[in-house]
Specification:
Helix content: 10-25%
Largest sheet: 5 strands, mixed
Strand content: 35-45%
Mean pLDDT: 92
Strand order of the largest sheet: 5-2-1-6-7
Structural class: alpha/beta
Shape: globular
Low-confidence stretches: none
Number of domains: 1
Number of helices: 2
């Protein structure tokens, strides 16, 4: 049985990415935290790398897809207005350069 989830990435109040995961949605939150741990969101490229920073939320969203989409299936892009009706729903926002991850579990 699959445990699915969606992850939405927001740039201010606008959803710019909705990533659907068909399997392992219950462990996806920890994988998100591990991927984003220690990273910041900045505006403008200086001497930083993807290991430490993202140049805005669009950069973060693209890196997130690249990180998780490594084989056929399991991860898909959905319309950004997709409702949070999946078992696990994650949101990612930038707050003063820090990355905020929240999870909503739907039974």
């Amino acid at each position: 049985m699959s445990t699915n989830c969606i992850t939405k990435v927001y740039d201010k109040n606008d959803c710019i990415l909705c990533l659907y995961r068909h399997w392992d949605g219950d462990s996806h939150g920890q994988e998100l935290v591990d991927f984003l741990k220690g990273k910041k969101v900045i505006q403008g490229i200086q001497h930083e790398t993807l290991e430490t920073t993202f140049n805005g939320m669009g950069c973060l969203a693209a890196a997130l897809v690249a990180h998780f989409k490594v084989e056929i299936g399991n991860f898909y892009l959905l319309p950004t207005d997709t409702e949070p009706v999946y078992e696990y729903n994650y949101s990612i926002r930038e707050i003063n350069g820090d990355i905020d991850v929240k999870m909503l579990h739907v039974a």
